[in-house]
Amino acid sequence: MKPRLLLPLLVLLGIVAVVAWRLTAARASAQSATAAAAAARAPRSVPVVIADAVERDVPVWLSGIGAVQAYNTVTVRPRVGGTLDSVNFSEGQTVAAGDVIAQIDPRPYRAALDRAIAQKAQYDAQLKNARLELVRIRSLVASNAESRQLLEQNEAAVAQYEALSAGAQAAIDAARLDLDFTTVRAPIAGRTGVRRVDAGNIVTAGQPDGLVVLTQIQPVSVVFTLPQRHLAALRPGAQKAAADAASRLIVQALDDQGGVLADGRLDLVDNQIDAATGTLRLKATFPNASLALWPGQFVSARVLVETRPHAVVVPTPVVQNGLDGPFAYVVTGSNTVEPRPVKPGPVLDGYTLIESGLLPGERVVVDGHAKLKPGSLVRNAEHGARSAE
């Protein structure tokens, strides 16, 4: 080819190549814009946390606030007065029923007992003599050697000495009791408190402050209250408690964090409702083997009124409150949500029992409700949870 024809041909080929490149770029840009518009028109999925409604046996608890009370509390007071010879316990010591906890000077009471014994011996001697005299007088009266009046006088004398002897025996019994009361014993098993009198002091019978206060904390009681609306649920348990101790309702004492301190049994549903507060008082007994409960301690208490078999439960945040009442967002097979009315029951450890509205295995939204509306496309945003996509 001639050189003068080659240059125009090259220029023409360049122009053709540039036009082809521009057409290809325009086509690609148009396709990208179309795809972007389609993506903009497509609905976006909302990230939510999804869980399954599960079926299980659900214990139904009723919870209230209460306080721990000693099962028994006794202020130990002396029954007789005198010098306190010794105090035989340490503060905070656990004692058994009948243990000696103090000793009062017994000598005055031992002397009083000896005096009463001697007095009875005197009356017994006089009674013996009067009975012998009565036998002699009766024989004389039978032979008409003595008058009937003398016989009656001797019979009266015998009766008098018998009464004196019986009174002396009663004085001996009282003196023995007083002597026994000089040894102060624990009336119940329990733990001693602060010592209120030191050895060497003079104590009096029934002195107001006493010697020490004993509290029985094994077992221990918890008194708590519940709203009066729960009376119907509690009444069968109260009837069981009255009929059979083994069938009493289970009660748990809880700490501030909800941990179980001890397990016990319901003893009492009070016989009246507090009109001022509309509450019902209950009392439960705990063995308290680990001493987790202490008199005066505030605790939460819950009583197990029933166990519902095959109940449907969901995490508590699933249940939302709407204008038409409680509802839950249910995730459909196409990963969209629909609001469904539900009837919630008791709340138990972060889960809510569903009386009606949900079936076991249905997927429900736990978190992320704020951006949802009927028909919203969702995806499970919780790490490790079952995907909704």
Automatic annotation (TrEMBL):
Residues 113-164 form a coiled coil. The keyword Membrane applies. SUPFAM superfamilies: HlyD-like secretion proteins. It is found in: Cell membrane. Residues 311-369 form the Multidrug resistance protein MdtA-like C-terminal permuted SH3 domain. GO terms for cellular component: efflux pump complex. The keyword Cytoplasm does not apply. InterPro entries: MdtA-like_b-barrel, MdtA-like_BSH, MdtA-like_C, MdtA-like_HH, RND_pump_MFP. Keywords: Cell inner membrane, Cell membrane, Coiled coil, Membrane, Transport. Residues 113-182 form the Multidrug resistance protein MdtA-like alpha-helical hairpin domain. Its main location: membrane. Pfam families: Beta-barrel_RND (PF25944), BSH_RND (PF25917), HH_MFP_RND (PF25876), RND-MFP_C (PF25967). Residues 219-306 form the Multidrug resistance protein MdtA-like beta-barrel domain. GO terms for molecular function: efflux transmembrane transporter activity. Residues 72-214 form the Multidrug resistance protein MdtA-like barrel-sandwich hybrid domain. Belongs to the membrane fusion protein (MFP) (TC 8.A.1) family. This is Efflux transporter periplasmic adaptor subunit. It comes from Termitidicoccus mucosus.
